[in-house]
Amino acid sequence: MEHDETFYKKLLIEALLHQGVEVTFENLAGDSPNEIVEKSCFQALQKIWAVLDDDSLQDFECIEQIFSILEGIGARGCLRNDC
After folding, report:
1. Confidence (pLDDT) at 52
2. Distance (Å, rounded) from C-alpha 37 to C-alpha 6?
3. Nearest 5°: CA angle at 36, between 73 and 69?
4. Residue 39: which of 66, 73, 9 has the closest Cα?
């Protein structure tokens, strides 16, 4: 039975390799990749400004929240002097 399943998978993969693939996202229809990135960055900036305007937060708490916001949009990298 396992041999038949492996053979079936190979046939299916081969058949799919010759088919066109199109991926769509209904909620992003009409938005270009640049528009999607710009919206994400703008929303992150708005969140960062809100953190900076929050007088109840200590400096370290602000930094932690800003890092969290940046990580939330996939911004990674060396943000310290010791990297």
Report:
1. 96
2. 41
3. 20
4. 73
Structural domains in the chain (count):
1
Q: What is the pLDDT of residues 3-14, one digit of tens each?
A: 688 888 888 888
Q: What is the DSSP letter of 1?
A: -
Residue 72, CA atoms < 13 Å, CB-side half-sphere:
13
Helical packing angle, 59-72 and 33-53, nearest 10°: 170
SS3 category, 79: coil
- Is 14 a domain residue? no
The predicted pLDDT at position 57 comes to: 95
Q: Is 65 exposed, middle or buried (0-12, 13-18, 19+ CB in 10 A)?
A: middle
Residue 58 has pLDDT above 70, yes or no: yes
Domain presence at residue 27:
no
Q: Is residue 8 part of a domain?
A: no
Tokens (6 digits) for 70 = 């940046």
